[in-house]
Structure formats: structure tokens, C-alpha cells
Amino acid sequence: MTLATVLRASTYRRMPWKNGGGETVEIAVSPKGAVLSDFDWRVSMATVATDGPFSVFPGIDRTLSILEGNGMSLSIDGGAPVLLTQDSDPLAFPADVSVSATLADGTITDLNVMSRRASLRHRVERIDVDATSTLKVHATTWVGLCHRGDVILECGGNRTDLGPGDAFLLEGGEGADVVLSGRALCYLITIEST
């Protein structure tokens, strides 16, 4: 059964980071209402205002994208720093290794997608919508986040307007067509069983 849900930015849950160093805005989580220790997957945004370590999540894979600000460098598991900016592709890495962040120049906001490695895998793609695009859904769970601009999303008879920060969650929609119309910068997230 296909379940389509519109997620409005005004309704997102705010919660402290696992390490207490900041605040996360939770866009969606499975199972619904799950806490940090027992989610299967999670999509959230966080504001990072100071340099420091990331929280460690055993058994979790993470993908990070920069939404606002001048970027930050990540040192992952002792490796050379990797600079992430708004123009960078989303960066995937294990969430259960040591990660240290250094801000490039001021506060940033990031998009953080996490999934439980033993049972799920996820992928994050950034796309510019200009006019109309049709996408085929190839995953059990699909999340479309409108970051900037406005987009009209149509899927399976559902039609909704998404403004900045709004998202659309499609569950059980493998094979469905999603039509995006307008001018917007969007992030598309697919989550599927391993």
C-alpha cells in the first residue's frame, strides 16, 4: 500500500543533539516517534555554530549536505579534512567512527540523513528543478525536501505545493512517477532494504 504524507516545516520536531552540543530539527523518522537509540532511518537538519566532534551512532550510515552557510571541514576516522560547501555533493560516511568538524567561516545548517546499516541503505541527491521533471521511484521509502524556492509535487493523484523547508514522504511507492514543477533546489532521499 502506498502512503503519501506532506511534512510541513512548521511541524518538525526540535530536539537536542545526542552529545548536547546543539539542536536538531527532525523532518522524518522511522518508526514514527523513535528516539535516537532506536530509529531505523532519520532525516533531520542541524545548525552547527562551533567546531567539535560529531555524535557517534553505532551501526548507522550517515550522509551530510550543507544547506546554509560557508561550509565546514570534516575529519573522518583520522583522515584528511574534507571541505563541504553548499555546492558539494552530499557526503556519505559511517556514523560510528570518529568525526570532527571545523567551520569554514561562521555558522552552517546541514541536512543529515541516517539509516541502520544492517537492514537499510540510503542515497541523497541534490537537484535543481527548473520547469517540470518526472522522476521514477525505485525505493521503498522516498523523501523529497524543498530547500529553496517553491515546487508543485504530483504523485499517484496527489498534488501538493511545497515551500522552503517542506517535504513529502512516500512509503511503498516503488515504480511510481513523481512530477516536480516550478523553480526550486530540492534534496531527494531514497531509503531501501539491503
UniProtKB/TrEMBL annotation:
Keywords, alphabetical: Plasmid
Gene3D superfamilies: Jelly Rolls
Top-level taxonomic group: Bacteria
CDD domains in UniProt: cupin_HutD_N
Residues spanning the membrane: none
Pfam families hit by this protein: HutD
Record bears the keyword Transmembrane helix: no
Protein name: HutD-family protein
Organism: Rhizobium favelukesii
Taxonomy of the source species: Bacteria, Pseudomonadati, Pseudomonadota, Alphaproteobacteria, Hyphomicrobiales
